[in-house]
Amino acid sequence: TWKWVVGPMFLYLCERLVRFWRSQQKVVITKVVIHPFKTIELQMMKKGFRMEVGQYIFVKCPAVSKLEWHPFTLTSAPEEDYFSIHVRIVGDWTEGLFNACGCDKQEFQEAWKLPKIAVDGPFGTASEDVFSYETVMLVGAGIGVTPFASVLKSVWYKYCHDATNLKLKKIYFYWLCRDTHAFEWFADLLQSLEAQMQERNNAEFLSYNIYLTGWDESQATHFVVHHEEEKDVITGLKQKTLYGRPNWENEFKTIAGQHPGSRIGVFLCGPEGLADTLNKQSISNSEADPRGVHFIFNKENF
Q1: What is the model's pTM?
Q2: What pLDDT is stored for residue 203 in this prediction?
Q3: Which residues pair with residue 119 across a beta bridge?
Q4: What is the residue extent of each domain of the chain?
Q5: Rounded Cα–Cα distance for residues 128 and 122 (Å)
Q6: Which residues of the chain have pLDDT under 70?
Q7: Which numeric CATH code is attached to 128-299?
Q8: Contact 83, 44 (CB under 8 A)
Q9: d(Cα 205, Cα 186) in Å, to the nearest integer?
Q10: Which CATH number applies to 24-123?
Q11: b or e along 238-257 (b: 16 or more beta carbons within 10 Å of the residue's beta carbon)?
Q12: What is the largest CA-CA distance in the chain?
C-alpha cells in the first residue's frame, strides 16, 4: 500500500508548501471602495502577481481569523496595475473584514491602518476560455456576475488600445438579480463599455439583458410608467431592465439562428438549477452536423 500512497502524499506536501510560500508573500491593499448594498471592493498589489480573466484567489485576513481562507473571483482585468475582489457582507467573516478595513467608520482611513491580507492564487476557471470563441453567452446570477466584470473590463481595455487582433466578435450578456440594489455597483462598468462601443461605432458588439427576478406589483407599475424614457431608471443604461426570468429556449434558438455554423461558448456563474437548464439547452440546440451550430457549456460556482 505504501508504494501507492507515498507518491500522491509527496505531491500533496509539495503543493501545500508552494501554497504556504505564496501565501506568505506581502500583499498591499491600495484602495478600499464601499459600494451600495453592503459590497466592498478591495484593490491590492502583490509582487509578481499575474492573472487571466475570470480567475479566483483565496484570501485570509489574520485580523479576522488566522485559519480561514475564502475564495473570491477577481473582478479586475489583466491590463490593470492592481487586482481586485468584490466582497458582499453576508456573514461573520465578511462582517469582520468590513470592520477591519474601517468601512464602519465615517472618517478617512489611513493606509497603514488597513489589515494585513494573505493571498493564495490565482487559480484558473472555465471563464478563461472566453476569448477562444467568436461568439459567447455570459450568464451571471446575483453576485455570480463578478467573473464577467473581469471579462468585460478586459474587453474594454482591448478596445481602448487595439481590437483588431480580438477573436471575440459578439457577447450576449445575461444578468439575473432578485433586487435592484445589486445593480448599482456593476452598472458603472456597463455604462463605460456601452459608451466605448458607441464611440467606435460597434454598439452591436455587446448585447446585454438584465433581468429583475424578484419584482413585485409596485416595481412593475414603476417600470411601465418610465419604460419610454431614453435610459433605464434602475441602471442608467439604454437597454431596459426586464422583469421575470428569461425564456432560455427562445434565447438559444434566436442566437443559433443569428450565428449558423458557429461554436458558441456558454459561460455561467450561478446556481446548479440554472446550470442544468443551460446545459440541457446547449445540448438540444446544438446540431449533429459538425458544420452546424454548437453550444459549448462551461460553468463555475462556489
Answers
A1: 0.74
A2: 64
A3: 59
A4: 24-123, 128-299
A5: 12
A6: 37, 109, 143, 160, 162-164, 179-189, 192-193, 196-197, 200-203, 214-244, 301-302
A7: 3.40.50.80
A8: yes
A9: 19
A10: 2.40.30.10
A11: ebbbbeeeeebeebbeebbe
A12: 72
